[in-house]
Amino acid sequence: MSPDQEPSPAAAARPEPPAHPDRPLRAHARRNREKLVAAARAAFTAADDTVPLEGIARGAGVGIGTLYRHFPTREALVEAVYAAELDDVTDGASALLDRLPPERALRAWMERYAEFVATKRSMLNTLHSAWASGRLATPATRERITAAIGVILTEGVRTGSLRADVAPDDVTAMLLGVFLSTAADDEPERTHRLLDLVVDALRAPGGS
């Protein structure tokens, strides 16, 4: 049986128990979970959170039973996608600084943040209802985003390329303004132009 095929009825009757929260998933199960989250991220970004779960399973190359073993509800899958996106965008600040000067790292990070906002927007119906009902914990998204911006600003101040008189949360507010003002547009070029203006506003006087 290939790794992506569903188990036989007999095997399905003896499903592997979910991993203990403190116990790592086995390699095969971890790969399946990662493929499901990746497929769901792509599907939600391209469409919305009403994408059939069967389509997400097909996109991941697994059966619907595998999806439900990892994510028993749509809300659980949406939460996993949201958490993975948030981890990527917040962890990305330090990774970008490892290979780019602060000003360029900030601009590249803003593009990644814009992708995160687009994915989040596509899942808002499920996220809002799940947060309101208490089924999902409300994440400290703004705090984590602001902390990531702070990492880049700190390095930019150290190198003299970014202003020292700007609070990270003010940058968060500017970016949210950009995304809110362009939410109804089908003009990514406008978002890019506005992000360029934000970076211009953050350059240190006399910086390049």
Biggest sheet: strands, sense, closure? none
User: How many strands in all?
Assistant: 0
Distance between the termini: 58 Å
Helix content estimate:
55-70%
Mean pLDDT: 84
| Oligomeric state of this protein | single chain
Q: How many individual helices? A: 10
Q: Report the C-alpha radius of gyration, rounded.
A: 20 Å
Structural class: mainly alpha
What portion of the residues fall into strands of 2 or more residues?
A: under 5%
Order of helices and strands: HHHHHHHHHH
Shape: elongated
List low-confidence stretches.
Answer: 1-22
Q: What would you say this structure looks like, in words?
A:
The chain is mainly alpha-helical and 208 residues long. The protein contains 10 helices and no strands. The chain has helices spanning 9-12, 27-46, 53-60, 64-70, 74-97, 102-122, 124-133, 141-159, 168-181, 188-202. It is elongated. The relative contact order is 0.10.
